[in-house]
């Protein structure tokens, strides 16, 4: 990992509470910021349908740019700066893991940062996020909670 600094043993857990924009609008921006840091990203889903929808969204979210990414169908995970997957693995040696829907991570130490995005309208997703928050805090891991402001920007609440 390129910027571990000891983070491998204690990854940061960031929680993004989606209240104003849908996942397909928020996720590409966060992935862009991850790539701008020189980090790779893995996006983990619990359904192939959502993975396919986000795959399309990453190619088309802005006319003037695209986010280079791939899936298992594309192969060569090790060459992908952003990899979309259903598997509990880190095939592209990503520093950042985005957990979406009900996807979970069995070995968070594989990453510098684990990011859970959850929709306010999804009670199951909120419950998963709460459980992960409690687990990360109990393990002594650094946690951050972000909520979207009316302007569309993010504000850190914890």
From TrEMBL:
GO terms for biological process: DNA replication; positive regulation of DNA-templated DNA replication initiation. This is DNA polymerase III subunit chi. GO terms for molecular function: DNA binding; DNA-directed DNA polymerase activity. It holds the Pfam family DNA_pol3_chi. InterPro entries: DNA_pol3_chi, PolIII_chi_sf. Coiled coil: none annotated. Gene3D superfamilies: DNA polymerase III subunit chi (3.40.50.10110).
């Amino acid at each position: 990992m390129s910027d571990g600094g000891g983070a491998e043993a204690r990854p940061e857990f960031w929680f993004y509470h989606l209240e104003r924009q849908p996942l397909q609008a928020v996720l590409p921006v966060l992935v862009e910021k991850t790539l701008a840091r020189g980090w790779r990203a893995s996006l983990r889903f619990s359904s192939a349908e959502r993975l396919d929808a986000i795959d399309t969204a990453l190619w088309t979210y802005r006319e003037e740019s695209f986010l280079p990414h791939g899936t298992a169908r594309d192969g060569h995970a090790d060459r992908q700066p952003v990899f979309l997957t259903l598997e509990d693995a880190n095939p592209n040696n990503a520093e950042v893991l985005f957990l979406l829907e009900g996807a979970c991570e069995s070995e968070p130490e594989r990453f510098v940062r684990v990011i859970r995005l959850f929709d306010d309208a999804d009670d199951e997703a909120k419950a998963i996020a709460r459980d992960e928050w409690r687990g990360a805090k109990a393990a002594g891991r650094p946690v951050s909670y972000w909520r979207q402001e009316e302007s569309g920007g993010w504000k850190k609440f914890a």
